[in-house]
C-alpha cells in the first residue's frame, strides 16, 4: 500500500486565457484518485486554484496585487473549488475533506502534530483530504504563497512514498519551454544544482510558484524519504503509470538522509522559518556535514540576522551554500562575541558557569547535502 500526495496547480485547473475550469482534467483526476483509493492506496490531494478561480468568478482579469485582494479572491474561490471537487468525487461515491493550513500551523509543534493526527484519521476513514493554504488568514511574512512547499511538507508529515506535482508542462525542462523552443525534458534529476535552479525561473500566468519552487519542494520531500515526480496535469491518468514504475515526466532521485529524517528533525528543517544565518569555516562544515558533530562557536565565521537563543538558523559554507539548519543555543549578540573562540575562552567572555554549550547541538540539526 502506497501513500501519495498529488498537488495540482492553478495552471492545470483552469484555462489561463478564459479562466474556465478544465472539467476534463478535474474529472480525470477524480476518477484516477478514486480508483487508487479503492485499490487501497492512501491518497491526499493538495489543490491550488482558490485565488485563480475566485478571480474568474469575480470577473478579474489578473491576480490582485494587494494581499487583501488575493485573500478576498481566495475566499470566493475556495468554496467554489471544494463544491466542484465534492461533486466530481461524490459522483463516484468517494468522500473528500477540506483541510486548510497556514505556515503557523506547521511552525507550532503541537499544531504540527495535531495536523498529522487529523490527516491520519481522515485517511483511515477512507477520505481523500483536499489541502490548501488558508489564504484568507495567512499573513504575508509567513505565507507559503504557492502550494509546492506546502505539498512537500504535508508529504513528509504523513510519511508519503510519492509526491506528484501536476502542472501545465510535461515536467522539468533544460530551460523554460515557453520561452526556449530548444528546451528538452529532463526525465531524471539526481542533484539540484545552482544552474538547474537558474534554468527553472519563470512561471505560468496564474501559477505563483513556478518551476523553481517545485525543485525546492522535491528537496524538502527527499529529506522525508519521499520521491517527487513532476508531470502534466492534463493527463492525471499518468499517476497510475508513475506508481507502476514507468518513466513519465521528471523523477527526482535525490540523496536524502539514510532512511527518513525523524519527524522532529523534519519539523526543525522545514516546519520552522529561519531567522538568521551562520557562515562556517571548512572544518566546521566538514564536522557537521560528514562527521555528524554538533556545531561549536569556534567554527563560525560570520553571523547574519538578529535572533534569540532557541531560534532556527541556516548554516552555510563560506560560499553562502546552505547545507543545514538548526536551533541555536545562543542569541546573535552572544554569538558575535564568542564566534571563533574555543570553549575555555567562551566561559570567560560570557562570564558563564558550568560546561560551555555547543552553538547548535547535533540533535537539533538537520543536514541535507
Ligand atoms: N525549466 C523549466 N521547465 C519547465 N517549466 C518551466 C521551467 N522554467 C520555468 N517554467 C515555467 O513553470 C511553469 C509551471 O509552474 P507554475 O506556473 O507555478 O505552475 P503551477 O500552477 O502548476 O504550480 C511552466 O508553465 C513554465 O512556464
Ligand atoms: N493557495 C493558493 C495557491 C497559489 C497558487 O497559485 O499556487 P500554484 O498554482 O500551485 O503555483 C490558491 O489556492 O490560489
Structure overview:
The protein has helices at residues 10-13, 23-38, 50-58, 67-91, 103-107, 109-124, 147-157, 194-199, 210-223, 238-243, 263-271, 282-289, 332-338, 343-350; strands spanning 3-8, 42-47, 96-101, 128-133, 162-167, 188-189, 227-232, 250-252, 276-280, 300-304, 312-316, 322-328, 360-367. The mean pLDDT is 90. The strands form two sheets. An eight-stranded mixed beta sheet has the order 3-4-2-1-5-7-8-6, sandwiched between helices. It has a five-stranded mixed beta sheet with strand order 10-9-11-12-13, with helices on both faces. It contains 14 helices and 13 strands. The protein starts with a strand and ends with a strand. The longest helix is centred in the N-terminal third of the chain and has 25 residues, at 67-91. It folds into two domains: 3-262, Acetylglutamate kinase-like (Carbamate kinase); 274-367, Archaeosine Trna-guanine Transglycosylase, Chain: A, domain 4. By secondary structure, it is an alpha/beta fold. The protein is elongated and about 70 Å long. Helix 3 crosses helix 4 and helix 7 (147-157) packs parallel to helix 9 (210-223). Bound molecules: adenosine-5'-diphosphate and ligand VHF.
Question: Characteristics of this structure?
Answer:
369 residues; alpha/beta; Carbamate kinase; Archaeosine Trna-guanine Transglycosylase, Chain: A, domain 4; 8-stranded mixed β-sheet; elongated; binds ligand VHF
Amino acid at each position: 500500500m502506497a501513500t501519495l500526495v498529488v498537488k495540482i496547480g492553478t495552471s492545470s485547473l483552469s484555462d489561463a486565457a478564459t479562466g474556465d475550469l478544465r472539467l476534463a482534467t478535474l474529472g480525470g483526476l477524480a476518477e484516477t484518485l478514486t480508483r487508487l483509493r479503492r485499490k487501497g492506496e492512501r491518497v491526499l490531494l493538495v489543490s491550488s486554484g482558490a485565488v485563480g478561480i475566485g478571480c474568474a468568478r469575480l470577473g478579474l482579469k489578473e491576480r490582485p496585487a494587494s494581499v487583501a485582494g488575493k485573500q478576498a479572491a481566495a475566499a470566493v474561490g475556495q468554496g467554489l473549488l471544494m463544491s466542484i471537487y465534492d461533486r466530481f468525487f461524490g459522483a463516484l461515491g468517494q468522500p473528500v475533506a477540506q483541510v486548510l493550513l497556514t505556515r503557523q500551523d506547521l511552525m507550532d509543534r503541537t499544531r504540527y502534530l495535531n495536523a498529522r493526527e487529523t490527516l491520519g484519521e481522515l485517511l483511515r476513514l477512507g477520505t481523500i483530504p483536499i489541502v490548501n493554504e488558508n489564504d484568507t488568514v495567512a499573513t504575508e511574512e509567513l505565507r507559503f504563497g504557492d502550494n509546492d512547499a506546502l505539498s512537500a511538507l504535508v508529504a513528509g508529515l504523513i510519511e508519503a512514498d510519492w509526491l506528484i506535482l501536476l502542472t501545465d508542462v510535461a515536467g522539468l525542462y533544460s530551460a523554460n519551454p515557453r520561452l526556449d523552443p530548444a528546451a528538452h525534458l529532463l526525465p531524471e534529476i539526481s542533484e539540484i544544482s545552482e544552474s538547474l535552479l537558474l534554468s527553472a525561473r519563470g512561471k505560468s500566468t496564474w501559477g505563483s510558484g513556478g518551476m523553481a519552487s517545485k525543485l525546492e519542494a522535491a528537496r524538502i520531500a527527499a529529506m522525508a524519504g519521499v520521491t517527487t515526480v513532476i508531470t502534466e496535469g492534463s493527463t492525471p491518468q499518468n499517476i497510475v503509470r508513475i506508481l507502476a514504475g514507468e518513466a513519465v515526466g521528471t523523477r527526482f532521485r535525490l540523496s536524502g538522509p539514510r532512511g527518513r529524517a525523524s519527524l522532529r528533525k523534519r519539523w526543525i528543517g522545514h516546519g520552522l522559518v529561519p531567522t538568521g544565518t551562520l557562515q562556517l569555516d571548512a572544518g566546521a562544515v566538514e564536522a557537521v556535514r560528514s562527521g555528524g558533530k554538533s556545531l561549536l562557536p569556534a567554527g563560525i565565521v560570520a553571523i547574519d540576522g538578529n535572533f534569540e537563543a532557541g531560534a532556527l538558523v541556516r548554516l552555510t559554507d563560506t560560499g553562502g551554500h546552505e547545507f543545514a539548519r538548526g536551533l541555536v543555543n545562543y542569541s546573535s549578540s552572544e554569538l558575535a562575541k564568542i564566534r571563533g573562540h574555543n570553549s575555555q575562552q567562551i566561559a570567560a567572555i560570557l562570564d558563564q558557569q558550568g560546561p560551555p554549550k555547543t552553538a547548535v547541538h547535533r540533535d537539533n540539526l538537520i543536514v541535507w547535502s
